[in-house]
From TrEMBL:
UniProt-recorded name of the protein: Kynurenine formamidase
InterPro entries with a match to the protein in the record: KFase/CYL (IPR007325), KFase_sf (IPR037175)
One Pfam family it belongs to: Cyclase
Organism per entry: Paenibacillus catalpae
GO molecular function: arylformamidase activity
One GO biological process term: L-tryptophan catabolic process to kynurenine
Length: 172
């Protein structure tokens, strides 16, 4: 068994999507003063490696706390745009940038989630049919090309959450 971390580290001042809240990670308590260490975090819900709930782009759609946990993990496969067949009943990940041109294929398959460098238009369309999306992933090139793996990307349980940073992990 091999475990691959697909997450971007959260760090003070890290790059964010233009207009999103700046990331601030500050030491709030120290061992010397309080006898424990504690960090204060300030960031947007779509910071770093994150999952998007349908409510992110569609008013009244499902929020993170309304989605069952099964939507955030499962058997997955890396696919390419030009693959003749994409497997059914799996989360699908793309190493290449993909846009709306693959929406019809994804809509027909109804994967529980899709991840990779997705165009805003594709992300909006997928969320519109209740397929959660993962973006800000790294290390997809370390995943097998023609074999299944288990993916785990659990969000924080944010009430009315439109998205959440995740620790995205593949188990091969």
């Amino acid at each position: 068994m091999r475990v691959i971390d697909l997450s971007v580290p959260i760090a003070d001042g890290m790059p964010v999507y233009p207009g999103d809240p700046e990331v601030k990670v500050k030491v709030a308590h120290t061992y010397e003063c309080q006898t424990w260490e504690l960090r204060q975090l300030s960031m947007g819900s779509h910071t770093g490696t994150h999952v998007d709930a349908p409510s992110h782009m569609h008013p009244g759609a499902a929020t993170l706390d309304e989605l069952p946990l099964e939507r955030f993990f499962g058997t997955s496969r890396v696919v390419r745009m030009n693959d003749l067949v994409w497997p059914e009943s799996r989360g699908l990940f793309f190493r290449e940038s993909v846009g709306i041109e693959c929406f019809d294929r994804l809509a027909a398959l109804q994967p529980p989630f899709v991840g990779g460098e997705l165009s805003e238009e594709l992300e909006r369309a997928l969320l519109g049919i209740h397929i959660v999306t993962y973006t800000g992933l790294r290390g997809l090139d370390l995943l097998p090309s023609e074999a299944d793996f288990m993916f785990y990307g659990f969000p924080l349980r944010i009430v009315s959450g439109d998205g959440s940073p995740v620790r995205a992990v593949a188990v091969i």
